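Sanity check. The docking grid for magnesium ion depends on where the pocket ends up, so I'm generating a full predicted complex first rather than guessing from homology. Inputs follow.
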Amino acid sequence: MAWTGRCPGCGEWNTLVETAPEPAAPAKARQKGTAAATPLPLRQVEATQVARMRTGINELDRVLGGGIVPGSLVLIGGSPGIGKSTLTGMALGNLQERGLDTLYVSGEESTAQVRLRAERLGGGALDVRAMAESSLETILATIEAEKPKVCVIDSIQTMHRADMNGAPGSVGQVREAANALAELAKRLDIAVILVGHVTKDGSLAGPRVLEHLVDCVLQFEGEKERTYRTLRAIKNRFGATNEVGVFEMRSGGLTEVSDPSARFVEEATGALGSVVLASMEGTRPVLVEVQALVSPSELEVPRRVVNGIDRNRLSMILAVLSRHGGISLGSADVFVNVVGGVRVDEPGADLAIALAVASAQSGQPLVGSGGRPRACFGELGLTGDLRYVGHPDRRTAEAAKFGLAPVIGPPVGESLRGLSPSPTLRKALKTAFSTPSEAPLSNAA
Ligand code: TYD
Ligand code: MG
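Predicted complex below; grid placement will be based on this.
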């Protein structure tokens, strides 16, 4: 075999592991002696209703699709310090309190450190059985002996099998550990929650392989310095993948933010370059504040700095603004930020970004009815049209609930109360800057 130090797939160094190919099955086995299976029409297959173990953390249960499925494998990814150990510790504490046996395996901290955290969490957190261990063999044997209902492995990157090459965290070790745990989980009907670190670029470190192996992948995000955290399902065999849970890190652990709109709107400033986006987080409408700052650039290539939105999306929006809105930012630095450390990953955010930038550039604040902040949503097409996005009714209703109607958005089939429909970006800009101040674009039109 050729020596290869760098993965030709992802470009990472030292991630390749040697794997011996399975010996080819003798041809005979495929011909004789193997009884054929009998496939059934799906209608005749008995559908078992899976019981869920509710963790009592509503935001977590919702993202999971109603609770933890027994015997399932869940991966919770997130950068260090985001609150993975806190979240899993709280969940186990709640389950333990309700009489379900739990086990917390830490490969990163001593049991004394785990206890210190549990003291802050309250509830049944101190009743959770814990051990500090990173030897896979010992962990498997312990799980087999203890047979907990739910087990947390914190983190999968610290686990290693002694008789295998590779340091803990290497692809081979991580895959081996996850495979062995998955097999055990299915066999003994134990739900296993794997904690995984993510790299700077946001992907789960090394083990992309893990995503295929587990039933559910949850991503825990937020900025370490900020208190808001979002939990979203990237993959879920037992539920929808568009649910998002919102948490706040407090002194007593993570608290659920069940009405995020109220929080974010309360904090919305209505200042220059600020607008409220009526976004959808899964099936739930959430109002978030989008802010922009525009300043003359001293660089040849002006800066585009984003927080909470996609950078390429901003480039596209700036191009549309220039071409179809008469707002040119070719020699300005542009900063866009979603307040609260929230991420909005939907095309429905386009108009909010465009309006925030336009406000920052023109020096006119966006003021809605009664001096309240402006709310909007909608996707921008490259032709300058404002396009339909999902759930305009729920977005509008949510904004109206907080007194932010009328909302600027794309036209919907029938007229919608509280929505101020605009077919194009140009029209949206006009509406946005018309009340109570004058339209800044009269000369650009
Ligand atoms: P932690 O759950 O250890 O993060 P992770 O396992 O993802 O690395 O906790 C992260 C931070 O949260 C840590 O800096 C301390 C803080 N924290 C609180 O603010 N309040 C609390 O009640 C707890 C337990 C932690
Ligand atoms: Mg941790």
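Relevant for the grid: Residues 78, 80-86, 117, 120, 249, 251-253 surround thymidine-5'-diphosphate (ligand 1) (CB under 6 Å).
Also worth noting: The two ends are 66 Å apart (CA to CA).
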